[in-house]
Amino acid sequence: MSNVVVVGAQWGDEGKGRIVDWLAESANIVVRYNGGHNAGHTLVVDGRTYKLALLPSGVVRGKLGLIGNGVALDPEALLAEIDRMAALGIHVTPEVLQIAETATLVLPVHRAIDAAQERLRAQPLGTTLRGIGPAYEDKIGRRGLRVCDLADPARLAQQLAALLDHHNAWLRGSGLEPFALEPMLGDLLAMAPRVLPFVGRVWERLDAAHTAGERVVFEGSQAVMLDVDWGSYPYVTSSSTVAAGAASGAGIAPSRLGRVLGVSKVYATRVGEGPFTSEAHGATGDTLRQRGGEYGVNTGRPRRCGWLDIVQLRQSSKVAGIDLLALTKLDVLDGFESISLCVGYTLDGARIDYLPASEAEQQRLEPVYEHFPGWRGNTRGVRSWDALPREAQALIEAIQREAGVTVAMITTGPERDDAIVLRAPFADAERAAIAR
Ligand code: IMP
């Protein structure tokens, strides 16, 4: 078995899309298992940029993409993305995309509730306003609609009416306009014939992949620090972003998932609200944002930027089961005279080496930094370890040592091959290399 689960090891936007794209080249299937079109995965292939939100990154290379039951699927967003891809010459057909029958649907009413909840919150969470949280609430509340329901118009109308009874009570109580059944029902029924050909038993396809010895990449969205259980709650998304989420969100045994590749930038960013102990305000943060192009792929929001938080990375690696680390965007640090790593915190004056669960405590943390000399020259596009400046090597070695995870890969630019590969993520490829 030689699958790889790719998870974000920070707050998202670590560059998972291009890592998945790189892995996809030598895999058969790419699977999304959590989140929805709140995600933004950017790939640059042959100089062309592709921005994906719902589609598994492998579709750009014609690899089979599976959307698992753990995904919150907005049919309108899906079809719009399929059309955008068609305009770029990538034709997403049922031969290259399969969607789990049991994936939960994101509806216009969820978008409206997401916006209303944010407006009414004393402390907004900074959600992407895509309706993802309210859709998962409905799923857990056992009133949600699923992709398979699109095939039964009469039942769909009943389910939607019951869903609106529930939500309209809250909307009216909050002094907001209730939501009408039409045009939502009509729009869903109109989209159904385009969505249904993609629908199938993803769990069965994954089982067949195992039997056939195919390689599967599980493409996590968001990241450990946005996980509903392990992130900085309540400033999190509403799904399971850790590797374990791949098993329940796609329908495969945990023992078949294979290795877990965590992806982290060599600095840190965060979108939305919530504690960010190593955030760099002023010139350092601005430089990281500009050099790293740190603006939301789908929302355009400027990202908060700061230094790499090793305490967070170490803890995330443990709870998400990260075996190997891909460090991204090394070239963004070119030109910095000094580079900092947050290697510990102080909480009310006492040194600690873990992220406390309480939000109030997280807000009071002060970073403890270790400083490293920057380097002269350019790491952009460097593709071998030996060609890296000594200072860059020392920084990566320090990250590996402090985080306690083996660095398998370093990226040095946006092109897929701007990377230094130190260890093959697929276990069978590594065995083959050792045998040679
Ligand atoms: P939601 O997922 O739209 O409910 O947003 C909840 C939190 O997750 C907010 O802080 C968002 O900014 C964050 N978030 C959701 N998706 C992403 C992503 O793909 N990258 C970075 N942050 C995200």
Spatial strand arrangement across the major sheet: 9-7-5-2-10-1-11-14-18-19
Gross geometry:
globular
Bound molecules: inosinic acid
How many structurally independent domains?
3
CATH topology of the largest domain: Adenylosuccinate Synthetase, Chain A, domain 3
Would you tell me the structural class of the helices and strands?
A: alpha/beta
> In the CATH classification, which architecture of the largest domain applies?
Alpha-Beta Complex
Query: What portion of residues is helical?
Result: 25-40%
Radius of gyration (CA) equals 22 Å
Most strands sheet? 10 strands, mixed
Contiguous low-pLDDT stretches (5 residues minimum) are none
**What amount of the residues lies in strands?**
15-25%
Q: What is the assembly state of the chains in this entry?
A: single chain
Summarize, please.
This protein has 436 residues and is an alpha/beta fold.
Can you walk me through this structure?
The chain is about 35% helix and about 20% strand. The protein has about 425 residues and is an alpha/beta fold. A hairpin with a 2-residue loop joins β15 and β16. The chain is globular. The protein binds inosinic acid. Inosinic acid (IMP) binds near residues 127, 221 and 272. The site of inosinic acid has 20 residues, from α4. Keywords: Cytoplasm, GTP-binding, Ligase, Magnesium, Metal-binding, Nucleotide-binding, Purine biosynthesis. Its main location: cytoplasm. Pathway: Purine metabolism; AMP biosynthesis via de novo pathway; AMP from IMP: step 1/2.
